[in-house]
Amino acid sequence: MKVLVARAVFPEVLERLRRHVEVEANQDDRVYSAEELRERLSDKDGAITTGSERIDGALLDACPRLRVVANMAVGYNNFDVPAASARGVLLTNTPEVLTETTADFGFALMMATARRIAESEHYLRAGRWQKWSYDMFIGSDVHGATLGILGMGRIGGAIARRGAHGFGMRVIYHNRSRLPAAQEAALRATWVDKATLLREADHLVLVLPYSAGSHHAIGAAELALMKPTATLTNIARGGIVDDAALAAALRERRIAAAGLDVFEGEPAVHPDLLTVPNVVLTPHIASATVATRRAMADLAADNLLAALTGGTPPTPINAEGLQPRG
After folding, report:
1. Is a pLDDT exceeding 70 seen at residue 326?
2. What is the pLDDT of residues 90-116, one digit of tens each?
3. The CATH number of the domain where 191 resides is what?
4. 166 secondary structure, DSSP code
5. Cα gap 277→274, rounded to integer Å
6. I need a labelling partner for 99 at 20 to 30 A (CA). Which of 43, 106, 273, 285 fits?
7. Do 251 and 272 form a contact (C-beta atoms < 8 A)?
8. Same domain, yes or no, for 198 and 220?
9. Does residue 84 have a pLDDT over 90?
10. Catalytic residue among 162, 237, 270, 293
């Protein structure tokens, strides 16, 4: 059996895979064009991908041997799930192993945004710091503030726990479905409608999955509901925020600041976001610790090998809707 590992990964993971299957690895870490990806997958039984590889019906039709694609990520908006299911191709992802690490980063990014850490560092590095003053880079408190969470899954819950238990924050959230009462109590979180969330949050953190329904869930109208002193942190997916509308709101100080780890069309970043000082920008690194990225790679390998050797993949996406292969 042959597999493609479409992006660079830990050498130890490749060694493990090679004990079971023939591996074509991309340790140069080039991002393949759609045409090159189809060519490289045309004779493969399986693949490990990241969010940069689009798996759709056209690709799958050109790769009839393909049986499983294992995403090294929680999100899978790079997958056309119905197209894969209809063609009998199993898709998997890597949930849970990155929950706590991503929550750590989300909270750190929110705090850096609230306390204007990046903005003040740029000021210092530019040699502009000449004296102390009472209003120099005054930000907003995190402790005791109202933390709003849009999307209360595993990561949202982990952020809520940090805020409520570690910083004495009032936690409000909005989700498509309300959490059970016992879980709300454990997290000290209160469900509110979306408009209330936007109006009352001092620090709004986005942790919802990307879909057609969540595209531009935060746009000009939503930003207009937020406090002028509020911050917005996005560790979810690009496209959930209308980046152009956000840049305008930041420039006009209609909200205080934003922290962004994800962007529409990344790795491209909307040029207006690069010209406003009150935003902290990071290159999609919320899960970037050695232990967590290794756990993600190992879980992707577990999924791939189980699917190819007759086992049960630990974290399938579309197993229930999978159509028999012809």
Report:
1. no
2. 999 999 999 999 999 999 999 999 999
3. 3.40.50.720
4. I
5. 8
6. 273
7. yes
8. yes
9. yes
10. 237
254 and 106 belong to one structural domain: yes
Is residue 264 among the annotated active site residues? Answer: no
23 vs 2, 97, 137, CA distance in Å? Answer: 6, 24, 52
Among 20, 215, 266, 294, the one annotated catalytic: 266
pLDDT of the residue at 324: 77
All residues at 6 or more sequence positions from 127 whose CB lies less than 8 Å from its CB, including other chains = none
The CA-based dihedral angle spanning residues 258, 243, 155, 96, taken in that order and rounded to the nearest 10 degrees: -140
CA distance linking residue 111 with residue 316, whole number of Å: 34
Distance CA 187, CA 169 (A): 11
Q: Which two tokens stand for residue 82?
A: 């119905």
Peptide bond into 267 cis (omega under 30): yes
How many C-beta atoms lie closer than 10 Å to residue 326's C-beta? 6
Angle at 184 between CA 182 and CA 190, to 5 degrees: 145
Residue 182 belongs to some domain of the structure: yes
Amino acid sitting at position 51: G
Q: Give pLDDT tens digits for 160-216.
A: 999 999 999 999 999 999 999 999 999 999 999 999 999 999 999 999 999 899 999
Say if 201 falls within a structural domain: yes
Q: Spell out where the chain has E strands.
A: 2-5, 22-25, 46-49, 68-71, 90-92, 146-150, 170-174, 189-191, 203-206, 231-234, 257-260, 279-281
Q: Which two tokens stand for residue 7?
A: 């992006």
pTM of the model: 0.94
DSSP SS3 for 85: helix
Domain that holds residue 10: 2-95+289-308
Rg of the Cα atoms in the chain: 21
Question: What integer pLDDT is reported at residue 322 of this predicted model?
Answer: 85
Give catalytic status of residue 284 as yes or no.
yes
Question: Is the preceding omega at residue 11 within 30 degrees of 0, hence cis?
Answer: no
Q: Are 296 and 9 in contact (CB under 8 A)?
A: no
Give pLDDT, residue 285: 97
Summarised one tens digit per residue, pLDDT across range 256-291 is 999 999 999 999 999 999 999 999 999 999 999 999
